């Protein structure tokens, strides 16, 4: 026989205490939760203050423009990574897909194809790699971590094999214009990142596919019960990730003037770091697009600040890793 | 409303208007017999309870009705017609929905997203269609407004709701899409007294509007309060049938334990 009588509870003091009591959190934990929620914005503020104190050039127009330009490729990859992580997965192959796609573009261009065809070949290669990742994860019932770690290794090797480990020069006026031109104060690279972010947000929050991505990440068992196809969702998110990795690879080649088989390896970690810093749950189901974009700017800003203050380059990965671990730690307190 | 007599099981005939009729349903997993020939029925506009001890076959029976398991032999008739229920999709096509024990809700999605999950309303053309959020929010508000449980607005996430509210959302979703029969497996097992009452009132209210429910419950009190008829299962068989108005909690206990056989 159940009872109507509830055990006596501590009297809540104020609204915050009431919320804390309802969720079984202390006030201190609530404070940490608020910090976690606003982590990307707070990190940006801390970066700006640190930049102001450390170097007068950090917030100069030229450096801000350079910083944003340097962030664009990472922003694009972070949007792709966000889709995968929203399902509870992780794409460790994203940098390798970008490198592979860039080399495919370079080789196609070197074979005499027009730049438009070469770009399409790169996009097709990246998308295909993504589809393969998703297919193996879904049908092979292998965890995302292992599949993408494997494909990272395979694609890195393939990229070196097909390029003979040599950069593929892409002398294209179109790519040069994309990397150096712009409209008004906005460079084309930043415009492309903004368009990708807007389309990513629409896809994630305004389509049935996006809802299913969040559903699979939030409660796979329930998603199965509601008839949502896990296979379609997984292939879909890796397709998005692969396509955007290819876009990143093309833009990287445009910036460097050549497709480098090993350029951009750091994106493997920083794309995940941007997403974590941006407030996307690594367990899936809870996501946003703006946060990872801010996360990408913050991480690029940290590296930029270390560069202009003359800190040895070896400290850069140390700083990035520390920021990521701190962000992941704060996530623990998020409700 | 008295539709069948409370008589020993073997003599219970299925009325012509039975919504669901099951005849000699058997389910075997290799040498293990989960259902040893279940014959039962449920009437439209009623709450039909299924009770029994652990391992009596309640879950196996409902999983056969929901197409999670394919019965080894026997027949299922729905609305008087033979029904092939081999997959969950077949059950949904018939208009049979379930409220799962773990609710199958998505905590970080809003109420309207949960209500329309995998049945989203869209506007636009083909691959360029986007969610018609306004229509789904409005429809969700309508669906939960009629419930006894006071559910907050449709834009709130399910995570922010109480156990009773979550249960109400799950029931409203099942009722919205299960046009014919909603199967509820222990729907109030995890709820407090007040929330349990709210959910029971919600189900009774929907029954009074003509909805049909099948209730799997361990609580004889709940069955006596809510149901119109009850089937007792023991060792993979339906061994007794009673109209609630003509039985008592003590008799149901006796039937479940085997102290009384029919």
| Pair with the biggest interface | A-B, 23 and 24 residues
Low-confidence residue ranges of chain A = 1-24
CATH architecture of chain A: Orthogonal Bundle
Strand segment tally of chain A? 4
Helical proportion of chain A, percent range? over 70%
Give the spatial strand order of the biggest sheet of chain A: 1-4
Number of helices of chain A: 15
- State mean pLDDT of chain B (0 to 100 scale): 86
End-to-end CA span of chain A:
34 Å
The CATH architecture category of the domain at 15-105 and 178-257 in chain B equals 3-Layer(aba) Sandwich
Pick out the low-confidence regions of chain B: 1-8
Q: What's the helix count of chain B? A: 8
How is this structure best described in words?
The complex is a heterodimer of chains A (335) and B (262). Chain A is mostly helical. Chain A has helices spanning 14-22, 27-37, 39-54, 61-86, 94-110, 115-139, 144-163, 173-180, 188-205, 208-218, 220-225, 230-256, 267-277, 290-308, 315-331; strands spanning 168-169, 182-183, 186-187, 258-259. Chain A has a single domain, classed as ABC transporter involved in vitamin B12 uptake, BtuC (Orthogonal Bundle), CATH 1.10.3470. Helices cover 72% and strands 2% of the residues of chain A. In chain A, α3 (39-54) runs parallel beside α14 (290-308), α13 (267-277) crosses α14 (290-308) and α13 (267-277) runs parallel beside α15 (315-331). The longest helix of chain A has 27 residues, at 230-256. Chain A starts with 13 loop residues before the first helix and ends with a helix. The model of chain A is unreliable at 1-24 (pLDDT under 50). Chain B is built from eight helices and twelve strands. With 262 residues, chain B is an alpha/beta fold. Chain B has helices at 58-65, 88-94, 111-115, 133-145, 163-177, 193-208, 220-226, 249-257; strands spanning 20-29, 32-42, 47-52, 73-78, 81-82, 96-99, 122-123, 130-131, 181-185, 213-216, 229-234, 237-243. Chain B has a domain at 15-105 and 178-257: P-loop containing nucleotide triphosphate hydrolases (Rossmann fold). Chain B is globular and about 60 Å long. In chain B, α5 (163-177) runs parallel beside α6 (193-208). The interface between A and B is medium-sized, with 23 and 24 residues.
């Amino acid at each position: 026989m159940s009872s109507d009588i509830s055990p006596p509870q501590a009297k809540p003091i104020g609204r915050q205490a009431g919320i804390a009591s309802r969720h079984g959190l202390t006030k201190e934990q609530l404070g940490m939760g608020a910090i976690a929620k606003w982590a990307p914005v707070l990190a940006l503020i801390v970066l700006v203050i640190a930049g102001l104190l450390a170097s007068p050039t950090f917030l100069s127009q030229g450096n801000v423009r350079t910083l944003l330009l340097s962030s664009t490729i990472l922003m694009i990859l972070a949007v792709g990574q966000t889709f995968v992580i929203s399902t509870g997965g992780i794409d460790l192959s994203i940098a390798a897909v970008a490198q592979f796609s860039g080399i495919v573009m370079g080789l196609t261009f070197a074979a005499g194809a027009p730049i438009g065809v070469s770009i399409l070949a790169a996009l097709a290669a990246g998308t295909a790699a993504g589809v393969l990742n998703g297919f193996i994860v879904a049908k092979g019932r292998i965890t995302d971590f292992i599949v993408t770690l494997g494909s990272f290794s395979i694609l890195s090797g393939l990229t070196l094999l097909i390029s003979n480990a040599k950069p593929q020069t892409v002398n294209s006026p179109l790519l040069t214009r994309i990397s150096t031109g712009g409209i008004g104060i906005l460079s084309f690279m930043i415009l492309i990142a903004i368009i990708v972010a807007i389309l990513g947000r629409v896809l994630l929050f305004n389509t049935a596919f996006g809802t299913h991505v969040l559903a699979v990440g939030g409660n796979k068992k329930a998603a199965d019960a509601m008839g949502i196809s896990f296979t379609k969702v997984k292939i879909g998110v890796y397709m998005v990730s692969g396509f955007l990795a290819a876009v990143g690879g093309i833009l990287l080649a445009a910036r460097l003037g050549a497709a480098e088989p090993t350029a951009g390896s750091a994106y493997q970690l920083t794309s995940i770091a941007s997403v974590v810093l941006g407030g996307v749950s690594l367990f899936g189901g809870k996501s946003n697009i703006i946060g990872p974009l801010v996360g990408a700017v913050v991480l690029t800003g940290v590296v930029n600040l270390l560069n202009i203050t003359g800190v040895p380059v070896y400290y850069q990965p140390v700083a990035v890793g520390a920021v990521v671990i701190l962000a992941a730690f704060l996530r623990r307190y998020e409700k | 409303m008295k539709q069948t007599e409370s008589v020993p099981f073997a003599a219970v005939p299925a009325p012509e208007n039975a919504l669901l009729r099951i005849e000699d349903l058997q389910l075997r997993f290799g040498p293990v017999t989960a259902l040893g020939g279940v014959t039962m029925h449920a009437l439209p506009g009623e709450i039909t309870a299924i009770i029994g001890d652990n391992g009596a076959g309640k879950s196996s029976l409902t999983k056969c009705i929901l197409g999670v398991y394919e019965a080894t032999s026997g027949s299922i008739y729905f609305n008087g017609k033979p029904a092939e229920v081999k997959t969950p999709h077949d059950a949904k096509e018939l208009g049979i929905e379930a409220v799962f024990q773990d609710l199958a809700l998505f905590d970080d999605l809003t109420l309207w997203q949960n209500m329309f999950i995998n049945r989203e309303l869209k506007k636009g053309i083909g691959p360029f269609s986007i969610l018609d959020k306004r229509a789904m929010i409005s429809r969700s508000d309508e669906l939960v407004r009629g419930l006894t449980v006071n559910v907050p607005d449709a834009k709130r996430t399910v995570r922010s709701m109480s156990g009773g509210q979550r249960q109400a959302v799950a029931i409203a979703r099942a009722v919205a899409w299960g046009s014919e029969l909603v199967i509820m497996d222990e729907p109030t097992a995890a709820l407090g007294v007040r929330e349990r009452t709210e959910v029971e009132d919600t189900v009774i209210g929907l029954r009074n509007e003509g909805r049909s429910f099948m209730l799997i419950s361990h609580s004889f009190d709940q069955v006596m309060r809510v149901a119109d008829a009850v089937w007792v299962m023991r060792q993979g068989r339906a061994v007794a049938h009673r109209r609630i108005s003509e039985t008592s909690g003590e008799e149901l206990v006796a039937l479940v334990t085997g102290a009384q056989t029919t």
